[in-house]
Each structure stands twice: as structure tokens, then as C-alpha cells.
Specification:
The chain is 68% helix and 11% strand.
């Protein structure tokens, strides 16, 4: 023993334990993760209606598709929305609903002498007119046990989100004692950057991609001549949650690739040669995780490939001897990629409505 220098336990990764002691620690890790998941699921089960409201938000932001060029009239009774009806030009002139593509009409009771009758009036409220262009799809349960299944789905997905920080802490407390200080530093950085990228991916999917995907799904159903006014609640919840999870994991790609670069499995030259394969891989991921139409797949594959390009340039930066010059080049590349992202966003914001109008003709 005296022939070998003894380094501090902190540098060596902590005290040495037997196999049974590690097995006992792993058992307690599973117990704590199961308890955290169970409590989180119970909390989400109690607040299931609020969680469903959060999941339904992208559906309220998706824009509806109305084939043809006839005026579309939204009919409401009080605060209740009844239906949207396309009307002919003759009906439009007879009802005097204006010349805009969308018009809102409110049905309300009035007294005609001593008899109550229903009348209608054109509602000029911009909010009511904007509401016409949103998808009014009802989520339904078609089986007696459907409500319980939906509640369990909501509890599971919501519980996983709530308990994720605690589970990561429990896993870190189990793994970190076996790591050296340098290894812990890299793990901390990877967790911080990876967690941020995961949150960005989920947010991008929730606020930007999901409304477009849902609107495209309705457009495709109408193109097939099928109705799309009701969806099964359990299938909608499963689709939305898996879609966001897949997008969040897709945004973890830079962390995985840069880790492989650090351990010399990949290099800048190898990554630069793989760009054709990454385009195909991203399109395949878009096809598997989104609705089966081109627009949504491209909207998902585009950001993933942009992240890949950023990762390639970071790998190039690490291999450069002149870091100051390489840093300026890297900032220039980042600016170009952000400019491309801005142009893509402008195309989606202003060009997508033109595509929809052309599709509806």
C-alpha cells in the first residue's frame, strides 16, 4: 500500500463501496424516484382540469381552414359559439354581412309586441371576427372509461414534468460520488446547457410548431373530404405530449455530439462530412414525430439542422490554434444563422397565410 501515492478522496471520486452497498444505494434511488413520481402524479390528478387546459392551448391558437372563397359567418348566442357557416354571395348580400371574408353574427331574443322572437345582428367586434379563424374542435371521450384513461395520461405526463428536477437530483446524488472533480465540472455544464436546450425545444414546439401541425392536420382531413370537428381526447393528449417530448430531445443533439467530440469519437472533419446524412435524419425525425405532411416536417427539421450546424462550428472552434480569430469567425456564423432563422420566421408569419389562401381556392 505504501508504494502507491494516496490522492484525496474528492479527486478520486469519493469513498470506495462494495457491490452490495452500491446495490442498496441504487435501491433507495429507485424508491425516491418512485415516491417523487407518485406524489407528482397525485398532484396532477387533483388538478387535471388545469393541466388539460394547458395542453389544449395550442389547439385554441391553431388557425382553421375554410376551403373556397365564400364568406364565412360565425353564429353566436350570447357567450356560446354555435357554428361557422359558409354562405353564398346571394346570402351575403341578403344578410348584409359586409364584404370581408369573415363576419360574426349574434343571435339574441327581442320582444315583438308581446311575443319574444329571435333576431340577429352583425357583430363588429374584432375579437369575435378573429375567433372565427381559430379551430373550434371538441375533444371527446367515446368510451365509459375514457375519462379515467385521460386523467391517468394527464397525471403521468404532468407528473413526469414536475418530478423531473427531483429525479435528476436523486440520480446526480447517486452518480456524482463516483466522478472526479473534472468529470463533475463537465457533467454540470452538460446538465445546464442540455436542460436549457430541452426547455427551448419544448417551448418552440408548444408555442410555434404545435398550432401549425394541428391546423395542417385539419386541412389534410378536409382535403380528404373528412370532418375534423371532434377528436378523441386521449389521442390528442398523447400526440401533443409526445410531440413536445420528441422536440425537446431533438434539441439535445448538440450536447450529445459535442460530448462525443470531447472524448475524440467525432471531429470537425467527420461532422462536416455528415451534413447530408443529418438532413435525411432530421427529415425522418420530422416525419415520425409530427403529422404526416411536409410543412410541419420542414418546420421541425429546419431548427434541428440549424442546431447541428452550430454544433459543427463549435467543434471547429475547439480545434483552432488561434482562438481569437476563430471566435470572430464563429460569431459571424452565428449571426448568419440567426439571420436565416429570422427570415424563416418571417416566411412562416407572413408567407404561411398566403399558402393557406392558395390551398383553400
Amino acid at each position: 500500500m505504501g508504494d502507491f501515492p494516496q490522492e484525496p478522496l474528492e479527486d478520486e471520486g469519493g469513498p470506495v463501496k462494495s457491490f452490495l452497498e452500491h446495490l442498496e444505494d441504487f435501491r433507495w434511488l429507485l424508491v425516491k424516484c418512485a415516491v417523487a413520481l407518485g406524489l407528482s402524479m397525485l398532484l396532477c390528478l387533483v388538478a387535471a382540469n388545469y393541466v388539460i387546459g394547458i395542453i389544449k392551448w395550442p389547439l385554441t391558437q391553431a388557425r382553421a381552414s375554410f376551403p373556397g372563397t365564400n364568406q364565412v359567418v360565425s353564429v353566436s348566442f350570447g357567450t356560446n359559439h354555435l357554428a361557422n357557416f359558409p354562405i353564398t354571395p346571394e346570402q351575403q348580400q341578403l344578410l348584409n354581412t359586409g364584404t370581408n371574408r369573415f363576419a360574426a353574427v349574434t343571435v339574441e331574443p327581442i320582444m315583438l309586441g308581446t311575443n319574444p322572437v329571435l333576431s340577429w345582428r352583425v357583430n363588429p367586434d374584432p375579437a369575435a371576427i378573429a375567433d372565427i379563424q381559430r379551430m373550434h374542435i371538441e375533444l371527446v371521450n367515446l368510451t365509459p372509461a375514457g375519462g379515467f384513461f385521460v386523467a391517468f395520461q394527464v397525471a403521468f405526463y404532468g407528473g413526469m414534468v414536475l418530478c423531473a428536477p427531483f429525479m435528476l437530483y436523486f440520480i446526480a446524488s447517486f452518480v456524482f460520488p463516483a466522478l472526479r472533480l473534472k468529470e463533475r465540472k463537465y457533467i454540470y455544464r452538460a446538465l445546464f446547457i442540455g436542460g436549457g436546450l430541452f426547455a427551448v425545444g419544448v417551448s418552440f414546439c408548444y408555442f410555434v410548431l404545435m398550432p401549425v401541425a394541428l391546423a395542417a392536420s385539419q386541412m389534410y382531413s378536409q382535403w380528404l373530404g373528412l370532418g375534423a370537428l371532434q377528436w378523441r381526447a386521449e389521442e390528442y393528449i398523447s400526440f401533443v405530449c409526445k410531440f413536445m417530448l420528441g422536440m425537446g430531445l431533438g434539441f439535445e443533439l448538440p450536447v450529445v455530439i459535442l460530448t462525443l467530440v470531447k472524448i475524440d469519437v467525432l471531429s470537425y472533419v467527420t461532422l462536416r462530412k455528415m451534413w447530408r446524412y443529418m438532413i435525411v435524419i432530421n427529415l425522418v425525425l420530422g416525419a415520425l414525430l409530427t403529422t404526416p405532411e411536409v410543412i410541419t416536417q420542414v418546420l421541425m427539421a429546419g431548427p434541428l439542422y440549424m442546431l447541428y450546424e452550430i454544433t459543427v462550428w463549435i467543434a471547429w472552434y475547439w480545434e483552432q490554434p488561434d482562438r481569437a480569430r476563430a471566435r470572430r469567425m464563429l460569431l459571424l456564423v452565428m449571426f448568419v444563422l440567426l439571420l436565416v432563422a429570422g427570415l424563416l420566421w418571417a416566411g412562416w408569419q407572413y408567407g404561411w397565410p398566403l399558402v393557406r389562401q392558395h390551398f383553400n381556392r
